[in-house]
Amino acid sequence: MAEHSRKKTGFFTRLTRKQAIILIASIAALALLIVGGVASNHLYGTTTGSAQKITAFSASEESAAQVAAADAKAALAEGRNGVTEGTSYTKVVIDGHAKLVFGTNFTDVQSVLQQGNITLQPGDSITPSLTTKVTESTVINIVSAGDTVQTVDTAIPFNTIQKDDPNLPVGARQIQTQGQQGVMETTNLVQMSGTRQVSSNTISSWVKKVPVNEVILVGTGVAASSSPDSSASNAGSNSGSTSNSGSAPSSSGSSSIANIGTTVPVGNPQQIAQTMAAARGWTGAQFTCLVELWQRESGWRVTAENPSGAYGIPQALPGSKMGPGWQSSATVQISWGLGYIAGRYGTPCGAWSHELSAGWY
After folding, report:
1. What pLDDT shows up at residue 354?
2. CATH code for the part of the protein at 57-145
3. Where are the domains of the chain?
4. Residues 6+ apart with CB under 8 A from 324
5. Pairwise CA distance, residues 215 & 262, whole Å
6. By the 8 A CB rule, do 220 and 235 touch?
């Protein structure tokens, strides 16, 4: 006698349409949670095997490199910082830190290092080789033997600026803005021999925080309701003295510059610049504009090296175009910078006005 057993049905076939939809949605949500957890673990957690954790440092380094590359392309397009036709750049990665080297007539890897002021130390490995021809897509990688990366913050001094104030009695002085030091961040590759530093190679040195210059109002005793003639006489003073001398010309294009005031140099580079600027007739407010401009660009450091490739006090692109001594001579750098300002903007206040409006000069 044949045995007739009850036909079995699958689990899913016994579900109603509504139950099936709910079940599928639940499974999909669970899958998303699992995938999300795995992705999060790869981004922030510790992984095993050959995979490496993506740290905040590496992410920020990549972001900084992308910003620098974008800024470099903009600099080439706009001709900023003295960029001329034929200028190009090559990416160099030193122990994981990327920098852009600007130059002209790049031929091989060795030429890039020379124009980028990069010195190889014994035991350093470099790819591609020094004699390899370079193109715009070339990436030079340097791995240092026994070197360590050190990042140091140093103070950028502020200047004291004096401005005439007709609402204060003659001789009265009042602080309008309290001065604050800026911050220069410098990243170096340092080679040590025991406790002795053998060499140091700067990867980047940039203005992390621009100084806030101290502004002091100096009373002139001229009432606010004085006659137009007397007001014009006071505002138009440009004798080169410390009482609002060198008021910026109207061609500066910025009302904020019109009463920028005067300042005295702080540090040897500013002293050199004051003398050289005065030889061009740039005193008083024009020198103040120059101080403000190069404070923001380089903190007045001869070794300032922005990640985008600009170098020195005036942030030339490339730095080598400033001539012999461009790596360390304030006189060489300032001479080139003043010539660049004169040729492109006419005066320091013209350059500073452009910096305020465009973010570069």
Report:
1. 94
2. 3.10.20
3. 57-145
4. 332
5. 10
6. no
